Give the backbone structure.
Amino acid sequence: MLSNAKLNEKIAFGLLRLAMGMVVAFVLVILYYIVSNGYSAISLDFIFSMPRNRMTEGGIYPAIVGTMYLIIGSMAVALPLGILSAIYLTEYAQPGRTTWTIEMAINNLAGTPSVVFGLFGLAMFVKYLGFGASILSASLTLALLILPVIIRASQEALLTVPKEYREASLALGVTKWETIRRIVLPAAIPGMVTGAILSIGRVAGETAPILLTGAAYFLPRLPDSVYSQFMALPYHLYVLATSGTNIAQTRPIQYGTALILLIIVLFVNIIAVSIRSHYRKKINR
Amino acid sequence: MSNRHLKEKGIESLLFASGIVAVLALFLLCIFLFRDGLLLFEAYPISSFLTETKWFPTSDPAHFGLLPLLLGSLIVTAGAIIFSVPLGIAAAIYISELAGPRTAGILKPVTEILAGIPSVVYGFFGLVILVPVIQRTLDLPTGQTALTGSIMLGIMALPTIISISEDAISSVPRAIKEGSLALGSTKWQTIYKVTIPAALSGISAAVMLGVGRAIGETMTVMMVTGNSAVIPGFPSGLFAPVKTMTATIALEMGEVPQGSEHFHALFAIGSVLFITTFIINIIANHIKRRYRFNL
Amino acid sequence: MPGTYDNGTEIEVTDLNLWYGDNHALHDISIDIPKNSVTALIGPSGCGKSTFLRCLNRMNDLVKSCRIEGKVLIDNQDIYSKDVDVVDLRKRVGMVFQKPNPFPMSIHDNIAYGPRIHGMGKKNINGIVEEALKSGALWGEVSDRLGSSALDLSGGQQQRLCIARTLAVRPEVILFDEPCSALDPISTGKIEELILELKKKYTIVIVTHNMQQAARISDYTGFFLTGDLVEFDRTEQIFESPGEKATEDYITGRFG
Ligand SMILES: Nc1ncnc2c1ncn2[C@@H]1O[C@H](COP(=O)(O)OP(=O)(O)O)[C@@H](O)[C@H]1O
Ligand SMILES: [Mg+2]
């Protein structure tokens, strides 16, 4: 005979297991549908050729190129800014009103919806600064979007560098900045790289901000300057799935595009996680 | 010596300048967003914006009523939260209290995959797979409903809720749990009478951040909710199409002339959205800061 | 007080008081530390030995809540006066910590780190590394693997590496904060020998909780108790006929 408490426990744990099972099932079902329907569409030709026949045939090359440009552009801005900002916050900032304000701004930027960043990018970069609907506007908008992610990841990486290294260097009569540059930063680089890579996944997948700042429905040519409009993978998928010329006929292309996006994002995540665990092991040795 | 001193000071100033970039960005964001948003009220009364029940931006005269869109966002978010909060918390309890370290080590990255999937892929999955299922099983005229959006958003909010709740539950000191077990309570009694109450503020922060994420999500809802700007009933509205604030901005911005009334109306919607998530973030971070145990 | 010293005085501390927030951790410490000798600081844990030591190279500047009053003269210069550059001071007053803390780089780079940054011996960095490792009594053990990671060395070797790293920037004073507390007896013996060798060229201040160690290697000993310097004298004096009851109780183990 089970006591009441024991029975309750059995039921409760059963429900917890069920919940966990459902969460895992969501992951598997989503991955299953995209992968099983997408993989037959993917080929070298699909990746490296232009769309043909009003995007009902051919590949997604310009969308891949556009997404690469966005990644490069936004990282080039956000990475240095984010790392320097994290260095300031962890190594120099004194607790007080200024630091509180910075922390609050970062938290709120992190929680601001991406479509709001899109509006901001439209108002400031596209219109006010006159960059137009372009790679430049979209990259800058995405850079601001991932800035908090990079700052937080870099701060975390800096905090894992043992205090002993800093003390040892300072005790040799080395200045604070030289200590940071030669001892702290090299030790924190793997963690920072992890954060940077994770935000690549974010840039690759964001749609709403680029939709407002320069992504094009279709372009016959690749972009030739930072002021050009561009195609990008997530927007391409959206367009094909909701307003393409022939939505049903282009299903395979849609699945293929979704799978490519998923591969980029998951691949990037796996790399980031393995870099992190590799270096964690090394430090704990 | 003074040379080196100058260099150190110079570098510190440079770092400070980068440090305040986030503040500057937030400041500029507010300025540009609110400026274009407020321009709406030169021609269109703010009272109508806040109380009108119609969003007919292209009719003559145009109606820019916030309510259908705001309520659309709220109903989709509410549905998502009702579904994902219990599920997420249960999964978090499972990971931190029942699963062994190895299982937990697998489950955590698996749930994080959910955080990595781009929202447009969720939207695509919802549109192609879930929409027909909803239509058939509930026998509705269309499967593009608030409920569909809620389910997809709920799934998307899960990783946020799970990871932060899990953090909060794991940080409940072992001594507190052992104290309860030593009194002869079962593991489950300990979990729901001791551990969960102790982790409650952390879990609430997780829920708030989940709400913030859901309310700001754009692509997914835009692809699965049908986008019809009507004031939804509750709960009947769950089974009909709705239009959220985010979807309205993303859908309509492409078609409006820059500087028009409609253009400014979309910025006004964006401002409302920003203020909403801003408040949610402040509350969430406030709760989060308090839950750390001082042991 | 032991009076004047044969080799002269290196460090003169007068009425030093230190607070961590509201915690008054050092009270009116006055002490003259002799040149080219070993001065040991003993006392129960938490009595302020490390805190005092860290005043001598201003490492306490890093602690935000820390406030200091009083005078510390090194070579007749007040190290807390405004025109003193902390960075230069720390170059002159080196420090070896309780836990060996080599940088995660090669043995060679660990030693070369300081001299390179200070622009010393640009051409002959290998010579500087060799000399420092020899003075640190480590050269024989590592000369064939200077390129391998310092983290692969044993604890005792790591600590000697840290000593050699400090020597490489040519300090006048070396502060040791319980350098052997994490080491086995054999490694401890090697480091004690090394310290006795080093005192010919450097002024050494060592914090230790090991009284035998203080008796074995030091010329002078100071006894700290709850933030006070209770007694300071020649080591034989302290150990054979201490002037204070508290010192005697501590040394004979009748303490707490
Ligand atoms: N960084 C610090 N911040 C605040 N208090 C400290 C700090 N370091 C030491 N203390 C306090 O100062 C007192 C002396 O500590 P310490 O100098 O480390 O003693 P010892 O080295 O003799 O064991 C103790 O009460 C300790 O708690
Ligand atoms: Mg100590």
User: Anything to note?
Assistant: The pocket of magnesium ion (ligand 2) is lined by residues C 49-50 (CB under 6 Å). The domain at 9-251 of chain C is CATH 3.40.50.300 (Rossmann fold). Chain C touches chain B at residues 85, 87-88 (CB under 8 Å). Chain C has a mean pLDDT of 92.
